[in-house]
Amino acid sequence: MAHRILQIKRWLFTTNHKDVGILYLVTSLYFFIIAGTLALLFRIQLSVPENDFLSAAKFNQAVTNHGLLMVFWFLSPLAFAFANYFVPIQLGAKDMAFPRLNALSYWLLLFGGLLVLAGFFVPGGTADFGWTAYAPLNTETFTPNPGANLTAFGLLMLIASVTVGTVNFLVTIFQLRAKGYKFLGLPMFTWGIFFTVLMMLWAFPSLQAALTLLAVDRILGATIFEAPKAGLIWDHLFWFFGHPEVYIVLFPGLALALDMISVFSRRPLFGRKVMIGALAAAAALSFGVYAHHMFMTGIDLSYLKIHMLTTELISVPFGIITILAIISMLGGAIRLTTPMLFAIGSIAVFIIGGFSGVFNSNPVLDIANRGSYWVVAHFHYVMVGAALFALLGGLYYWFPKMTGRMYNETLGKIHFIISFIGFNLLYFPMFFLIDMPRRIFTYPEWTGWGPLNFMATIGGFIFGLSHLIMFANLLYSLRHGPLADKNPWGAWSYEWMIDSPPSEFNFEGIPIVQGNRLTIAMADGAVTSMESHGNHLSPWPLLISLGPFLFLLGLGLWIAEAVFSLPLMLVGAIVFLYAVYGWFRDDFHERFKFEEPPEYKERWPFTNIHRVKLGMYFFLLGDAVFFAGLLGTYVFMRLEAGNTLPGLITHNILLGLLAVLLMLWSSVFMYVAARAAKLGNKTLALAGISLSIILALSYLVVTGFDWLAVFSAGFTLSDPAIASSATTALSHAIHLIAGLAVAAYLALKVWIRGFTGHVPETIDSLSLYWAFLAVVSIAIFTITYVF
Amino acid sequence: MFHYPFNPSELSETAKLWWDLFGFYLAVALILGAVIYASLVLIPVLYSRSRKSVDEIKPGVVPGDRGKTLYLAMIVLLIIAAFMSIFVESYISVNKLASLIEDEYGVNVDNLEQLQPGEVDGALIIEVRAFQWGWTFIYPNGVESDVLYLPEDRLVIFKVTSDDVFHAFAIPDLRVKIDAIPGQVNTSWTIPEKPGTYRIQCYELCGVGHAEMITKAVVLPQDLFDFWYKSMGEELKGLEGKG
Fold first, then answer.
1. How many CB atoms are closer than 10 A to CB A593?
2. Is residue A582 packed enough to be buried (19+ CB in 10 Å), middle (13-18) or exposed (0-12)?
3. Number of domains in chain B
4. Is A227 in contact with A637 (CB distance < 8 Å)?
5. Average pLDDT of A2-16?
6. Residue from A129, A183, A296 whose CB has the most chain B CBs within 10 Å, to mutate
7. Which of A50, A230, A350, A701 has CA atoms 20 to 30 A from the CA of A89?
8. Closest-approach residue (CA) in chain A for B46
9. Largest Cα–Cα distance in chain B?
10. Where are the domains of chain A?
């Protein structure tokens, strides 16, 4: 009994990257089953013309949530399950750079997904505007469904999860490589995750900006997205995120397929460096192609031509990767194991997905393709085919490592063959349905779309049910499979040099890379003392995510006028505040110490930057996109959305200037505090932080006063320019308030305990954050006050 | 897709342009795809049976480079060449879409939305209003209809807008499609070339009625269209006169 309670505690409070990886894996497969069931439901509806299995409203909800759950809560989390488990090991690290933040990003993901699911149970239905949520359909006027609010909240929690995870992975990859491990020697999978998180860093803040504006619309009663042409700004924000998102889903799988191809043909990849370069090029280009989703929106033709060029250009790196992957198998001794079959299958469907993508690069061809089943076929070939097949291959590939047992090879191969046939039967007919619009819940018989749809539905059931073979195989093998040894595939990277399953800290010694040789140097004192580094369990990541979950659930129910909503919000707020207090308290007593000695790590090119500060740099690089999105929306509203007044008239410009000056001085004093902390001058540091806090508070007061004046002058949130600039100011204020909480805590800690632990580095990072907020306040002033 | 007993590219000028371009893309895709697929299938089949004991992957050793720079460069250049051919062709096609009517009718495609009826000889300008859930087509003489009547062999310019949410106006067989966005006028054009009845449908999710946002476009021979247009116009005038 005690053992079982200990087990439950382990899974709830774990911060170990392998445990978190398993949690990700189980969660993603859970959402896979739900989203897959939704897909089968609407495939039944579409199987014959004029069917009435699902109503239009239910169909739209099923389609919307199928898309959201599959993309955000299945494909990416499945990739990140492997990333959590194996990237640190492949680097030669004992855990992620920030283990507690790693657990936090898992719990935020889980609770975000549960919020989306909760939307189904709210009376009035959940989101039904498609996963792209085009404005103004997504506003309360056109989608009053209260569940849609929960969907938006769930997505915001997901973005929080992604932001935390992104920063964590970047710092881990940059600073926790084994001593001597050069970047170019890393396995392709780690490279794929590296580019994936880089894309996440810049893509998700754009969605965050769009959703924040939407939340202001839906909760505070603004009408930003109902302004004339406002649908276009949603398009821009969404697709600036949306196109990189496709590669975010694809990259981990594609890179993993390359690793598997190399291992199972017993040959190094052909042109490995060129492939890495191609991944980098595709990642960079992915931000410049998104307008091909907007060819028919009537935006400027020359803009479309540029995006036509870049979209076609992006086929070059992907073409290079595909062809080099095939050539890599030449001259090998290929073993067609289950993972290898899935890797080859992934490349096979990626070729079709890629070629059909080139067709979508052209505005003329898009006349037929846009919004049709051709597009559905295309992106399922890329996201489901290429990404999912490779990731399922990864599940078989790493199963012996994660569980210590082998799966049944024959059943694995049967799973591959059936799912491959089912997949193609499901999606290939859709290329011929190029005339059929997406997301229609039914179609008349005279269109002649019936037989192809019927074929697709049959394929859908074959594909969907084929995964039961995998579940059965893996669940049975988990207990009864033959024991696997360390390296069943004869692969080369670090995870295959340690036990299956790995021990808590992965390596029994110090991983060191000499030339091109991965070694594990035998333990000396520094490493065995790892275990004595305190508790690896922390309840705060769970509670700090549970709080907002309860609060947002309550808020969504409150808008839906359901019972128990206010107590739920209250409990959520209390849990959140208590968890934040708990986290601070743990930090105060330095209870959670986990750091590998930096002298055993390769940290190039950030050798001398502390990990907290490096994380802060990455976070701010992403956050800049968020504010750019909000300010861009304001500019768009001023230029396009009818009669809006310039900030010069609505705002008191002198008050604005005063606020900016306060913020600038606040940032200067925070910098002084950071320098003083580095030199160990306690008095000066405390004075700096206190002054900085006071000035930042006066900034908030002055800005708040200015906004009160704006609203009392009769301006309301129904003016889209006012609403978007208010959203920007509010987001900035929330950033500042969060920073103030940390600043106040740090001042307290310095006062009582002096400069222990990482306090000087944390103050240094905070001063960086403060400088960023000062720059943002200048940008807010110059754009929303003057323009 | 091919449910017509005749060549789908003969239905309109824009359909012709589309099918020509689609054919080019398809040809490139099929040729390259055949080569790539052949190697993707043949290489694993051949080399999984080979008795050679190749084993260049050693546990704990970062695999070296197999870079044969010359071959690599050739592959990269080949892919770039394929890309260039696609790009040049699509660039030409996009310009062709504009120049087709610029040359024949002297219309400047950059500001089609400002075009007024009567400004271009022989062109018919139809205002399309999308709403939840249906279409209204407004002709220059004030006639409003929920079925679209079009003349054969005449330039038709659609000025498309929406009353509420995003829609997408499309006559798929004639290869006409453009988004209908509230607060904005988008334009699209075609020259229908075969009398008949075609499906008009919304191609952007616009709420629960999305699937039923279907109506028809009827392409009439010139004289029949003129008869319909005039008689409807006179009927409208008669109504106004009485009112």
1. 11
2. middle
3. 1
4. yes
5. 85
6. A296
7. A350
8. A334
9. 96
10. 2-532, 614-785
pLDDT 10s digits, A391-426:
999 999 999 999 999 999 999 999 999 999 999 999
From start to end of A1-85, where are the E strands? none
Q: B240 CB near a chain A CB, below 8 Å?
A: no
Q: What is the CATH number of the domain that holds B77?
A: 2.60.40.420
CA distance A150 to A139: 13
Q: Give the architecture (CATH level 2) of A614-785.
A: Up-down Bundle (1.20)
Q: Is A179 exposed, middle or buried (0-12, 13-18, 19+ CB in 10 A)?
A: middle
Q: Is residue B183 part of a domain?
A: yes
Q: For residues A135 and A237, what is the distance between their CA atoms, to the nearest angstrom?
A: 11
d(CA B186, CA A290): 20
Query: Six-digit token pair at A270?
Result: 């052909």
CB contact under 8 A, B57 and A267: yes
Residue indicated by tokens 């897709």: B1
Q: Residue B105 is part of which domain span? A: 1-49+70-243
Segment A429-486, tens digit of pLDDT: 999 999 999 999 999 999 999 999 999 999 999 999 999 999 999 999 999 999 999 9
Q: Do A333 and B62 touch (CB under 8 A)?
A: no
Would you say residue B33 lies in a domain? yes
Is B60 a member of any domain?
A: no
Closest CA to A256 of A203, A184, A323, A325: A325
Query: Alpha-carbon dihedral of residues A737, A739, A744, A748, nearest 10 degrees?
Result: 160
Q: What tens digit of pLDDT does each residue of A194-229 get? A: 999 999 999 999 999 999 999 999 999 999 999 988
Encode A265-301: b = buried (16+ Cβ within 10 Å), e = exposed.
bbbbbbbbebbbebbebbbebbbbbbbbbbbbbbbeb
Asked if the peptide bond before residue A429 counts as cis, ω within 30 degrees of 0, the response is: no
| Whether complex ipTM tops 0.90 | yes
For A69-97, give one letter per residue: b (16+ CB within 10 A) or e.
Answer: bbbbbbbbbbbbbbbbbbbbbbbbbbbbb
A774 phi/psi in degrees, rounded to 5: -65, -45
Domains A2-532 and A614-785 equal at CATH topology level: no
Q: From first to last of the 243 residues of chain B, give the pLDDT tens digit.
A: 344 556 888 899 999 999 999 999 999 999 999 999 999 999 999 988 766 778 899 999 999 878 678 888 888 888 888 888 888 888 888 888 878 888 878 887 777 778 887 777 788 999 999 999 999 999 999 999 999 999 999 999 999 999 999 999 999 999 999 999 999 999 999 999 999 999 999 999 999 999 999 999 999 999 999 999 999 988 888 877 665
Check: CB of residue B93 under 8 Å from CB of residue B124: no
Q: Where are the alpha helices (DSSP H) in A70-187?
A: 76-91, 99-118, 147-175
What DSSP line would sit under A605-618, residue for residue? T-TTS-HHHHHHHH
Minimum distance, in Å, between the CA of residue A347 and any CA atom of chain B: 8
Q: In degrees to the nearest 10, what's the CA dihedral of A533, A534, A536, A538? A: -140
pTM comes to 0.96
Those residues with Cβ within 8 angstroms of residue A85's Cβ, 6 or more apart along the chain or in another chain: A17, A18, A21, A22, A25, A398, A402
**Tokens at A138, concatenated:** 């997504």
Question: Which residue, among A59, A334, A494, would best test binding to B if mutated, counting the most B CBs under 10 Å from its CB?
Answer: A334
Domain presence at residue B173: yes
CATH of domain A2-532: 1.20.210.10
> Locate tokens 């060449």: which residue?
B81
Cα A589 from Cα A767, distance rounded (Å): 23
Contact A353, A249 (CB under 8 A): no
CB contact under 8 A, A298 and B40: no
Pull the structure tokens for residue A408.
Answer: 């049944």
B56/A267 Cβ within 8 A: yes
| B130: nearest Cα among B189, B213, B216 | B213
